[in-house]
Backbone:
């Protein structure tokens, strides 16, 4: 049963029972006695011609994507094209306009992300304080349609009027793309998904390295895995900074991703991390490294800062954000003055070149002679030394909350004491005893003196972070999405509305009641790799190839990839140990050692067995969100695909892998016979 959310309403209103909780919760809605608005294939999206080109993206740009989302959510074959009008007085109209009241964040700062909505039986009017505010209003409309459809079978929005605005300016998530390679298509889909829950920033940590002391502090350091994801031009003096060119983004690919994220209301904040976490630069120019610390740069060496600035000189024109992150965390404190000079010099340099400001991770740097400029935003993540966020705020700094106790996640490891795979829900809903749960103004679960109030003028908001300390083989993109999917929605509620500030905020029960439906139908992407079964037993396809000759090429199914849970079964008689049984957009399954391949990272996960040649075998591959295993007919045992996990090269342990089904092509380079192939859900 989906939870209803009681807002400002007349309890006698028959329409009141059709309003449901959504994520994030809205600030206010007052019901009227009229019939609800019903979405139909005749529903039209109109844009106020007076404001159509206002904003970047413009109101018209947002409206165009909104119509596409409406098509997907409703399942209609057609909706009228977006058109311009001076008012929305016609029947069956969703009218987008600007000119809403002046809305403020909790700290009193004006925001263009507020919106008002007025719903009657005939018309929905969404009025933004800016174009992005109107966009968030369309997310509210779509969510109401989804949850009402789940409950009643009709896509309706109740009659009434309301308003909403975020509590904080920064509501974002960070992904460590420096230690784990991700294609821009995956990152773009993450933006689209996060946008549905009104997050507005995607912080991409785009350079870093694995930390393994057995490699880093020995002669092996030049071979330790590092990543620098922005690919310089072919004739650039910076060309050598990228360790693996196939694991880097071209300017056109990055900017296409950046544009798509912006079109969904999300700003990409890029990070190149220096002077620490900089092994990629040391491997390129060893003379710049700090003696004995290959992942740290020597800021006193004359060429170091100019080299870093040359990198930014090339890449700053790529970025449309008004801020960038230079990282600047975990640098040796004995070089405090050099570090502070570097941060301030970079702030001046970046602003002079691009009019952008910078962020740094909070790092304790004891100095009696200098301090970091107040123009630099501090992204707090830990409490070492004197980097106490309430003190930073009192001193006049702008602060973003990324406190690791609440907001740090990590990929799978062999140590359960590392950061969790997803946000700790108990801390978000209840917090410490007597608290109402985490919000951007909460930095400590145990010491209230380290927390501030929601309206603190220097508190910009919060970003939660998923780190990939263990590299490409620890997780595949599906597992990364599964870590983020619910965390993004939970964080969306708390970073938009907070805890205990508004009477309309969600309870955990309300949140849990609507999350599955909203996750399953969030438009514009298919990170769940969901498909509709065609058969009565959940079959996606059932094929029998008989005497088909695969030497003529693989057979396409039209189904790219299928997310778990699923069962993929095949009967085959191989004549060679080579070839690819199945291939999809995410994964492939090789015949040799029945090896799963994570296609984006080209990482291999093999089984300790081989199929006999010239003998018929029947395989069943079972997958859930936690594991993937093989059942081989006649053996009666489960064989799991695993990865070797470790903590900094020690405490080795095997962990299970979860893979999407590779379902697009069958029999690529295969020699032999394939009989029946069945892919079913469940």
Residues:
């Amino acid at each position: 049963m989906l939870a209803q959310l009681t807002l400002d309403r007349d309890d006698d209103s028959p329409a009141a029972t059709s309003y449901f909780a959504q994520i994030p919760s809205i600030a206010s809605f007052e019901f009227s006695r009229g019939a609800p608005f019903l979405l139909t294939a005749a529903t039209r999206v109109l844009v106020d011609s007076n404001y159509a080109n206002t904003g970047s993206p413009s109101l018209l740009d947002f409206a165009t994507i909104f119509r596409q989302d409406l098509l997907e959510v409703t399942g209609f074959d057609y909706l009228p094209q977006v058109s311009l009008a001076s008012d929305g007085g016609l029947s069956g109209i969703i009218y987008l306009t600007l000119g809403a009241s002046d809305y403020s964040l909790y700290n009193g700062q004006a925001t263009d992300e507020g919106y008002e909505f007025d719903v009657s039986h005939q018309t929905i009017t969404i009025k933004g304080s800016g174009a992005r505010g109107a966009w968030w209003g369309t997310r509210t409309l779509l969510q109401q349609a989804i949850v009402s459809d789940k409950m009643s079978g009709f896509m309706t929005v109740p009659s009434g009027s309301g308003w909403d605005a975020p509590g904080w300016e920064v509501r974002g998530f960070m992904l460590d793309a420096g230690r784990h390679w991700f294609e821009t298509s995956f990152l773009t889909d993450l933006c689209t998904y996060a946008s549905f829950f009104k997050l507005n920033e995607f912080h991409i940590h785009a350079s870093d390295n694995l930390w393994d002391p057995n490699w880093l502090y020995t002669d092996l350091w030049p071979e330790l895995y590092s990543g620098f994801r922005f690919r310089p031009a072919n004739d650039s003096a910076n060309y050598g900074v990228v360790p693996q060119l196939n694991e880097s983004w071209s300017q056109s690919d990055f900017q296409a991703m950046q544009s798509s994220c912006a079109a969904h209301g999300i700003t990409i904040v890029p990070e190149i991390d220096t002077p620490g976490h900089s092994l990629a630069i040391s491997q390129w120019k060893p003379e710049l490294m700090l003696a004995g610390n290959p992942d740290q740069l020597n800021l006193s060496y004359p060429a170091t800062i100019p080299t870093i600035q040359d990198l930014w000189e090339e890449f700053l024109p790529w970025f449309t954000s008004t801020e960038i992150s230079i990282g600047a965390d975990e640098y040796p404190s004995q070089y405090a003055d050099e570090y502070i000079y570097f941060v301030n010099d970079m702030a001046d340099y970046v602003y002079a070149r691009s009019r952008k400001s910078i962020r740094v991770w909070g790092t304790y740097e004891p100095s009696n002679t200098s301090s970091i400029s107040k123009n630099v935003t501090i992204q707090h993540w830990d409490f070492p030394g004197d980097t106490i966020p309430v003190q930073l705020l009192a001193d006049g700094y702008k602060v973003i909350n990324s406190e690791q106790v609440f907001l740090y996640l990590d990929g799978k490891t062999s140590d359960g004491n590392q950061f969790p795979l997803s946000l700790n829900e108990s801390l978000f809903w209840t917090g410490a005893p007597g608290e109402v749960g985490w919000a951007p103004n909460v930095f400590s679960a145990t010491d209230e003196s380290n927390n501030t109030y929601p309206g603190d003028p220097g508190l910009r908001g919060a970003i939660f972070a998923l780190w990939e300390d263990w590299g490409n083989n620890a997780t595949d993109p599906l597992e990364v999405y599964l870590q983020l999917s619910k965390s993004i929605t939970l964080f969306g509620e708390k970073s938009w509305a907070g805890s205990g500030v508004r009477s309309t905020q969600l309870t955990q029960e309300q949140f849990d009641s609507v999350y599955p439906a909203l996750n399953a139908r969030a438009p514009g992407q298919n990170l769940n790799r969901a498909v509709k079964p065609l058969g009565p037993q959940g079959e996606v396809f059932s094929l029998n190839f008989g005497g088909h000759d695969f030497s003529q090429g693989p057979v396409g199914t039209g189904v790219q990839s299928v997310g778990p849970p699923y069962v993929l079964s095949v009967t085959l008689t191989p004549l060679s140990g080579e070839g690819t049984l199945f291939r999809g957009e995410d994964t492939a399954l090789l015949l040799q050692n029945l090896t799963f391949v994570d296609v984006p990272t080209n990482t291999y996960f093999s089984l300790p067995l081989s199929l006999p040649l010239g003998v018929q075998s029947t395989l069943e591959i079972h997958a859930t969100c936690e594991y993937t295993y093989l059942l081989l007919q006649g053996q009666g045992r489960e064989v799991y695909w695993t990865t070797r996990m470790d903590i900094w090269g020690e405490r080795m342990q095997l962990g299970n892998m979860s893979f999407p089904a590779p379902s697009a092509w069958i029999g690529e380079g295969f020699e032999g016979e394939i009989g029946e192939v069945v892919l079913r859900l469940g």
In short: DSSP finds 13 helices and 40 strands in the chain. The first helix runs from residue 59 to 74. Residues 170-500 form a domain with the TIM Barrel fold (CATH 3.20.20.80). The chain has a mean pLDDT of 93.
